[in-house]
Every structure is written in structure tokens, then in C-alpha cells.
Amino acid sequence: MENLRPILWLSLAFVLFLMWQAWHADYGTRPTVDPAPEVEMDDLPERPEDVPEAPQIEPDPADPVAPPEALPEPVRDTVSVRTDLHDLRIDPRGGTIIQADLLAFPVDPREPDVPVRLFDQRARGYVAQSGLTHDQVEGVDGPARAPSHHAVFEAEADSFEMGDADSLRVPLIWTSEDGTIRVTKTYIFERGTHLVEIEHYIENLSESPWIGRQYRQLRHGPTPPRADFFLYTFTGAAWYDGRYNKERFESFEDDPMQQRLDGGWISVIEHYFMSAWIPGEDEINSMYARAVPGVAGATDYLIGLHSAEPLTLSPGASDALSTRLWIGPKTQAELSEIAQGLELTVDYGIFTFLAKPLFWLLRVINDFVGNWGWSIVILTILIKLAFFHLSATSYRSMAKMRAVAPKLQSLKERYKDDKQRMNQALMELYKKEKINPLGGCLPILVQIPVFIALFWVLLESVELRQAPWMLWIQDLSTRDPLFILPVLMGLTMFIQYKLNPPPMDPIQQKIFMALPVVFTVFFAFFPAGLVLYWFTNNLFSIGQQYVITRKITAAAEKKH
Questions:
Q1: Strand partners, 525
Q2: Listed residue (13, 2, 172) closest to 514, CA to CA
Q3: What CATH number should be reported for the domain holding residue 210?
Q4: Please, which pLDDT band fits residue 505 given cuts at 50, 70 and 90?
Q5: Taking a C-beta distance cutoff of 8 angstroms, is the pair 90, 455 a contact?
Q6: 125 shares its domain with 222
Q7: Chosen domain end from 295, 320, 347
Q8: Rounded average pLDDT over 70-99
Q9: CA 268 from chain center: how many Å?
Q10: Does 293 lie in the same domain as 232?
């Protein structure tokens, strides 16, 4: 039965190896990031394939591919928008957001003036598009009566800044060729939030009714290939239809989708950041996702929403269609208040049931302590206290095993040619000394799920991104730059090995001797926050085990 312990440790080592592969996929080779250049009008191909038709949700959804339309001519430079949290570039062609820098999130803490770029038309084909479609009225012909994201808008200025104001409005105006329809597309920014409101205000200046709908879509180019099979991170499309769904972009090439969506939301998610179109809670939309031709023969991907219920304007009337767009980090507290299920984009995997309460407790501690590193230390202590009695039982079992180690060795020598008789003698000895040979496995079994859950918390929670602890550790989400914590953690594992009863099998002894070295190598490339947790856990385990071992050993010496 004691053979289970090395199996468990080796299983944990294998899990660590898989985690290291996943970590290395995101942190092993970081691309260099240049300062954000001014964007010129360029590259997204203007195709009718990316404009949805008016949906017919019941009973038969229509294909979201519109009939051919003329492509607009290139227009002037982009409109720049700067708020307290965003630095955006809006293309007057369609009023499309083609670039979005997140000013509160530098790519590297050593370069605080180089922000993370979320939308990036030039490098990734990643943009936020929105527009209107017009339902043709029988007997009414003429030029386009609704601006898609191919239409050319006019802006009041080339640049807008929030400055010290609490909000900022950026209006873009489109007028049909015959002057009968005027649409003002306004981006509305509020201080302190990454949530943006987009309003289409339609004025029907014609003598006939106007019937139309709004659509919103996120467009993304192909994701770079990854060599590692086991990945914890996800880049792709996600949506909420009463439950959380996600799909990699490539799946839409062979299996485009369209479905009814009551409320909900759609998004493109990455490691720490995301964009999401969020309709009204009672709004009914046709959700579509498909692959479309991209630049230079590549494939782009769309996920979008198209209003199922049209807006009808009588001659001379006006009204507005509104929606919301999230452009920012996956901050769980804020996302949970914006829309149901939006916080699920922070994907902790199969251990979500453990990871979510761990993160909640970690955040509560940090609210008082003000340092994520010390919060991890305190969280570790609380976890140790929660499992104190279980650990004590296990350490007593191991201490008793250590105390009877000479007897175990004697039995091995006596029955070395009769394994069946030796196992019987071992069971009799365990029963006589009241030893549970499985007791030493419990601390490992308890720690593995907690360890993996905390691993996901540290790597998925943007709140811990670039969070400093002290001295040389200035980013708990990346590896220790000096490898000091991994070495200290390896030393604590070696001390624990010495406190445990030595295995009778020489091969197992060699495995146990090598494990501290193996784990040190793995942890050398893991996030410093995770190493801090394991190191703190080992320190308190050593203290508890040392006290219990001394008591059991002293009692055994008195007995004999």
C-alpha cells in the first residue's frame, strides 16, 4: 500500500509537466511590442459576405450572407479617441473600431507607456464592427437606406479626448445619397469603465416608412499555431444563451452556426482580455458565427448578433437603437454586474468549483492587506488550518511508520523470498501498531486539487497580472527572475523527505531523493505566486510534521 505514495508524487509531477507546457506556451517566448503607431486606412477586405441579412428566426433562420453590394472607396484617416482607459482608432468607413489600446494595462511593467493592444486590424484582423440593415419596403426603391460597416461616415473632428470630463460622446454621421435617411452613430464613453455604449439614431426624412435592424459583430484573423497539445488558455469565440459556450475559431470553417439568442452576449476572449457585444436583457437576436475570406488568402472569423425585431419609423419620425461593447480586461467583479454569465469568461476549467471561492477569499484578503503576495501567504495558512486535523492524522501515521522502520526492515530481510508471507506480516504489524499505511497519502491527495485550482487562479485572473510581492519579485504571475523561491521550495521538499519514513524499496528511495530536484526544475518556470503558495505550505507542513514526529518517536522510545 505504501507504493501509492510514490505513484501520487509522480502523478503530481506529471501534472506539473503538463502545466509547464501550458505556461510555456504563453510565457516562454513573448513577442516584442512596439509603441502604438498611427493607423492608416487599409486592409480589411470589404466583402458582402460579412454583412448579415435580416434574420428570420422562426421558423427558419436565414443565412447571414447578404447579396452582393458595391464596395465603398477608401476614405480619409481614422478618428482618434482617448479616454481615461482607452486609446482608440475608429475608421470612418463603418465607424468600425480598428485599434484599441488599454491604457491601464502595460504589456510589461518595465515599459508602462506601452499598453496592451486588444483590437488590432493591422496585426491580427481583430476589430469591432456594427451597422444597420434595411428591410426593403414593397414598392420603395432607391439607394441604400441603412449604413452597414462599409458605409462612409463623417466625424465632427479628427480626434476626441475625455480630459477631466466624466463622459465623452463621439458622433459619426451618415446620410443616404438621396438625403432621406440620416443616421448618427455615437460612441459614448464613461469614466472608470471599459464598457462603451453605441447608439444609432435614425431620422426618417422620407415620405415612406423605414424598417431596419442593427447588427454587431467581432471579427478576428487566424490565431497563431501552438506546438503544445495541453493548453489551459483559450483564444476564440464565446457566448451565453443561458449557459456558457465557447468554440475555437477554426471550428466555424466547417460548421458555421446561427441560433436564436434571448438576451445573452457574444465575445472574443483571450488570456486576460476580451471584447463582448452585450444586447439588452430582453432583446432577441439572431446569433451567427462563420469563417469569411481574410487578407492575402487568409481566413477571418465572425461572431455577431442581428436584431430579430425590426424598428419601424413612419415618415418624419426618428428613434434610436443602442447596444453595449466591452473592451477590456476580464475583471470578474465588474463583469458579473454587467450581464449574467459574463464573468464565466474567466475560465478556471474543471476545478472552477474550487478556484472561484479561492479567488474570492484571496481578493477579500487583499482588500485588507493590499499586497497579493502576502495575501497568498495568508490564504495558504488558512488552507492549512482548514485541513489541520486531516494533516495531523496523516503525519501521525507517517511518524509511526518511521518509528517502526527497523521492524519493517527486519520483516523484509526475514521474508525476502516470500512476498505473500511478508505482506501478511506487514499487515499484522500495522494492525498491532495502529498504523494506517494509506494515511501518508492524504496530504498529497488534498493538495493536488487545491494546487491546480490556485494555478488557474494565478494564471487566469487579470487582477494578479503584474502584481508585485516584495524585493525581486515584482510580478506574481510570471516566474521568479532569480529562481530563489523555487530553490527554497526544493529545500523544503528535501526536508520533508527526511521527516518521512524511508521506503523499503531502494528504487523508491531513489525516486523520492530525485523528486525535490524534479519539482525544483518545474517550479523554476512557474508563476512566482504559485511557488510562493507551495513554499509556504511546505514550511508550515514541516513545522507541524516535526512536532508530531518528535512526540511519536519519544513515545515509541519510552514504550521500548
A1: none
A2: 13
A3: 2.70.98.90
A4: low
A5: no
A6: yes
A7: 347
A8: 81
A9: 11
A10: yes
